[in-house]
């Protein structure tokens, strides 16, 4: 416990950038009146559960990258009071997971900063994740989980030092093969690699650029909870990891 106290105080100074701008077209059959991260679990927006998880480790400043139905997110968080600061970064047109970070650059103050998907959750030990990122002096650190079935996810191949070697599709049952858990620590100079006002993907365009450039994977036991489809959303509603937050 004593080893984490300085780290928690450091986490208080770091920004959390949450990607919550996608249309969520696969989920719209069951959630059509709000953006996907605002889908409810036990009467709480999924985004609220994510924020509460991060806040439990000391994070206080949240940059919400909103796009589709962004006014729902803006209206909900505009009236929030308390110790947390919420900044809404709107995108006028879809910019992809990378472009939306570039669009929010003016609001990102800390170096490094944490990025998280707004439609998935993994109970990552964030103080340990941050310590791992700093110890490796990493440009990017990605939280990953080991999984038996990687069919639905892009896979991450690591070397013995947990440096990221490659990103591949549907490479199953490799002993060092993991899947992306949707949380990242970035050094701020990574933003300079993302073009301005352009649709740009973290997964397909930025991450391949970062392979073998001091990019590492932090392995978490999981589970990975993804609300992107009606079936996964129903599973998320029953997931004990979410109910404990």
Give an overview of the whole structure.
The protein is of the alpha/beta class and 245 residues long. The protein has helices at residues 5-11, 46-55, 70-78, 96-103, 126-135, 202-210, 230-237, 240-243; strands at residues 15-20, 40-41, 44-45, 61-66, 85-90, 113-117, 120-121, 140-146, 154-158, 164-169, 177-186, 215-220, 225-226. The chain has a single domain (5-243), classed as Alpha-Beta Complex (Spore Coat Polysaccharide Biosynthesis Protein SpsA, Chain A), CATH 3.90.550.10. The protein contains eight helices and 13 strands. The strands form three sheets. Strands 1, 4, 5, 6, 8, 9, 10, 11 and 12 form a nine-stranded mixed beta sheet that branches. Strands 2-3 form a two-stranded antiparallel sheet. The protein has a two-stranded antiparallel sheet with strand order 7-13. Strand 2 (40-41) and strand 3 form a beta hairpin. Helix 4 packs across helix 6. The chain is globular and about 45 Å long. It starts with a helix and ends with a helix.
Question: What's a concise summary of this model?
Answer:
The chain is of the alpha/beta class. It is built from 8 helices and 13 strands. It has helices spanning 5-11, 46-55, 70-78, 96-103, 126-135, 202-210, 230-237, 240-243, and strands at 15-20, 40-41, 44-45, 61-66, 85-90, 113-117, 120-121, 140-146, 154-158, 164-169, 177-186, 215-220, 225-226.
Assembly context of the chains: single chain
| SSE succession | HEEEHEHEHEEHEEEEHEEHH
Q: CATH class, anyone?
A: Alpha Beta
- Give the radius of gyration: 17 Å
Shape: globular
Number of helices: 8
Measured between the Cα atoms of the first and last residue, the distance is 20 Å
Task: Count structural domains.
Answer: 1
**Biggest sheet details:** 9 strands, mixed
Name of the CATH superfamily: Spore Coat Polysaccharide Biosynthesis Protein SpsA, Chain A
E-strand count:
13
The average pLDDT value, as a whole number, equals 91
CATH architectural arrangement:
Alpha-Beta Complex
Structural class, please? alpha/beta
Query: Hey, roughly how much beta strand do the residues contain?
Result: 25-35%
Helix-residue proportion: 25-40%
CATH topology type: Spore Coat Polysaccharide Biosynthesis Protein SpsA, Chain A
Low-pLDDT residue intervals, each spanning 5 or more residues? 1-5
């Amino acid at each position: 416990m004593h080893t984490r106290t300085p780290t928690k105080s450091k986490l208080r100074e770091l920004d959390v950038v949450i990607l919550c701008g996608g249309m969520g077209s696969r989920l719209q059959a069951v959630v059509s009146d709000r953006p996907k991260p605002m889908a409810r679990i036990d009467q709480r927006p999924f985004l609220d559960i994510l924020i509460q998880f991060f806040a439990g480790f000391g994070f206080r400043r949240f940059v919400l990258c909103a796009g589709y139905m962004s006014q729902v997110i803006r209206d909900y968080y505009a009236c929030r009071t308390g110790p947390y600061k919420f900044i809404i970064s709107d995108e006028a047109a879809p910019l992809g997971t990378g472009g939306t970070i570039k669009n929010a650059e003016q609001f990102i103050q800390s170096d490094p900063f944490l990025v998280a998907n707004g439609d998935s959750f993994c109970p990552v030990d964030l103080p340990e994740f941050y310590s791992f990122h700093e110890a490796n002096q990493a440009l990017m650190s990605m939280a990953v989980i080991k999984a038996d079935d990687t069919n639905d996810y892009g896979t991450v191949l690591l070397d013995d030092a947990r440096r990221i070697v490659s990103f591949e599709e549907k490479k199953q049952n490799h002993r060092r093969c993991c899947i992306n858990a949707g949380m990242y620590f970035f050094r701020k100079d990574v933003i300079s690699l993302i073009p301005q006002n352009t649709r740009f993907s973290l997964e397909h365009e930025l991450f391949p650029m970062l392979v073998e450039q001091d990019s590492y994977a932090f392995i978490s036991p999981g589970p990975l909870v993804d609300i992107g489809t009606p079936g996964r959303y129903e599973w998320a509603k029953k997931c004990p990891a979410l109910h404990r937050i």
